[in-house]
Design brief:
Length: 604
């Protein structure tokens, strides 16, 4: 049983450190020693690789296990509400993905073509992801709760050639726009043998693939480490979603951190609750854990506290990776519910995506007998950069320390912000506890290699050999990193990044809306929720009915990223250049000082 002690040397102002005795000896015992000895070359050498220095994510995740002692071990166990659980062994997953890769070949998909998914968590999603990577395609996962607008935008920006989805999503979110997507050559529908016009059934695709496999053998083109593999869309303050491009070499970091941070080893049953439409669900819901030969549990059902405890208990989950919003939702139901179930197999709980309250770290101890280990990273970093690694003391409220192979610092940009970065003029702040922009020294294997079609924006993200993350943080004297906030207007709701511009653009399409500013409003459960301030066109009355209509309009267009609240405001604050000042809207909403208003246009 894990036990916890409080380290008396902790400064009086901080929360006590949590030191737990691990239930099983962690794979990485001494963090400091690991940091000294770790190299990315040695991490790369742990992988199988392919002839001639080639490397392929799907080979490392599936095929290398399919011919060894893990061939009959369960790779994937997919749970569903109201439908039977399905399982695939590593051997079966290898064969199914071979069929899918051959089907892509048979239908004319070439290396580098983008294959997008808009699917619930089930076998077809995992087969599509890994089969595409095997075939040297670029996989672009879309979050299934997106509405039609974000789906259309991402399919269009990514120039997706193939989309794999289900019939309802197709009819509602893609068919109405299909004519605006000239690159989309093929849509595969997984849940019917009678597919909508213009689409092909999954069963038919598999039949084609099986035929092609017999005729031409497996389709496993050799990929180079720097060949594009994944296209993840993420949000910024301005403009459209950014397509972060990751390459096959990223698997070096997935594989290393799955051991260093998640402590994964063969025989583990591992559950990552993030959807593969987001980077966590891809890097640590699929790739990292499979490269470690574990059994990955997935659940297509929505959050339900009782169900989650049941899954942890019945599946005998050993390592659990989740998010602060989910933990807060569990906490809200009280630890009595947690205690109705038993978790003797569980040995490690970790979290990512948004600030993890110290209370949640400690609640883990109460509910599971294990503290929650916070980890920090981003879509752009591709893998965990900062973490509380198993077996080392946790400082509740801190995101932990940089993982082996990663250097972080807090930086100050030059006096005029952006220009300083362009001039490479950044200063590393060495004072413990100085707040600055969190930066990662460039060059780790899962570093994003481009923002799709936007080399300038990519270049602006780097200065003096550092990647600037857009987060504000401080680093204490012992190297623990503390999250302070975002340096920009991006909204974080339930762990998902939401670009205010995307939401504003969708609302602007409503005939009553003249102008709109969108902010993240603090919320005890989701961290933030989206709130829109709307100026109405002449002739429209600010009625509760119109408010409801705008919320439902947003919901219909945007899905899960829509505003929860709409407030009418005929006098939105603007900068002198005419942009709505979201920062000021947020300060007003929170009752905070309004700060430097020198750039605000004063209403006359
Ligand atoms: O602001 C930070 C927040 O999530 C952002 C990255 O979001 P995304 O690219 O969607 O990736 C999320 C999962 C990898 C970061 O810039 N964030 C992530 N982890 C933490 C966090 N904020 C506070 N604490 C964390 N542990």
């Amino acid at each position: 049983m894990a036990s916890s002690t409080v380290d008396a040397s902790t400064p009086a102002t901080a929360r006590p450190e949590v030191v737990t005795e691990p239930r099983t000896e962690p794979l990485v015992g001494d963090w400091a020693q690991q940091r000294r000895h770790f190299t990315w070359e040695s991490a790369r050498a742990q992988l199988d690789g392919l002839p001639g220095g080639h490397l392929n994510i799907a080979h490392e995740a599936v095929d290398r296990h399919a011919t060894g002692p893990l061939a009959d071990a369960v790779a994937l166990r997919c749970l569903h509400r109201g439908a039977p659980t399905t399982e695939l062994t590593y051997g079966e997953l290898s064969r199914r993905t071979d069929v899918f890769a051959a089907a892509l070949r048979a239908t004319g998909v070439r290396a580098g073509d983008v294959v997008a998914t808009l699917l619930p968590r089930g076998e077809e999603l995992y087969v599509t992801v890994l089969g595409t990577l095997k075939a040297a395609g670029v996989l672009s996962p879309l979050f299934p709760a997106f509405g039609p607008e974000p789906v259309r935008e991402r399919l269009s920006l990514g120039r997706a050639r193939v989309l794999v989805t289900d019939a309802v999503s197709y009819e509602r979110k893609v068919a109405p726009f299909r004519g605006t997507l000239p690159h989309l050559a093929r849509v595969v529908v997984v849940d019917t043998d009678d597919p909508p016009p213009g689409t092909v059934a999954w069963s038919e695709l598999e039949r084609l693939g099986a035929q092609d496999l017999v005729a031409h053998g497996t389709h496993r083109p050799l990929t180079r480490p720097d060949d594009p593999a994944l296209l993840h869309f993420t949000s910024g303050t301005t403009g459209r979603p950014k397509g972060a491009v990751h390459v096959h070499e990223a698997v070096v970091a997935h594989h290393a951190t799955a051991r260093l941070v998640l402590d994964l080893r063969p025989g583990d049953t591992y559950w990552c609750t993030a959807d593969p439409g987001w980077v966590t669900g891809m890097s640590y819901g699929i790739i990292g854990p499979l490269t470690r030969g574990v059994t990955v549990v997935t659940d297509s059902a929505d959050f339900d506290a009782r169900r989650w405890y049941q899954v942890l208990q019945d599946e005998r989950v050993t390592v659990f990776y989740t998010a602060p919003t989910a933990l807060r939702m569990l906490m809200r139901q009280g630890s009595d519910l947690a205690h109705e179930y038993r978790y003797p197999a569980l040995r490690h709980v970790a979290s990512v995506g948004e600030p993890l309250n110290p209370e949640a770290v400690l609640w883990g101890l109460e509910a599971f007998g294990l503290p929650v280990h916070d980890t920090w990273w981003q879509t752009e970093t591709g893998a965990i950069m900062v973490a509380n690694v198993p077996g080392t003391p946790i400082r509740p409220g801190s995101m932990g320390r940089p993982v082996p192979g990663i250097d972080v610092a807090v930086l100050q940009r030059g006096p005029d912000g952006r220009a300083a970065v362009q001039d490479d003029a950044v200063t590393v702040l060495h004072d413990p506890d100085a707040v600055g922009e969190l930066a990662v020294r460039a060059g780790w294997p899962s570093m994003f290699r481009a923002y799709l079609d936007d080399p300038e924006r990519y270049a602006r993200a780097f200065a003096d050999g550092w990647y600037l993350t857009g987060d504000l943080a401080r680093i204490d004297a012992d190297g623990y990193v503390w999250f302070v906030g975002r340096a920009d207007d991006v909204i974080k709701s339930a762990g998902h990044l939401i670009g205010p511009f995307e939401v504003e653009s969708a609302l602007m399409e409503h005939e009553a809306v003249a102008e709109v500013g969108v902010i993240g409003k603090p919320d005890p459960l989701a961290g933030e929720v989206v709130k829109a301030f709307v100026t109405l066109r002449a002739g429209y009355e600010p009625t509760p009915r119109l408010q409801r209509e705008l919320i439902s309009f947003g919901r219909h267009r945007l899905g899960s990223v829509a505003p929860r609240e709409v407030e009418f405001d005929q006098d939105l604050p603007h900068t002198r250049s005419g942009k709505v000042m979201r920062r000021l809207l947020r300060a007003r909403e929170l009752g905070l000082p309004e700060g430097d208003l020198s750039t605000v246009e004063t209403p006359s």
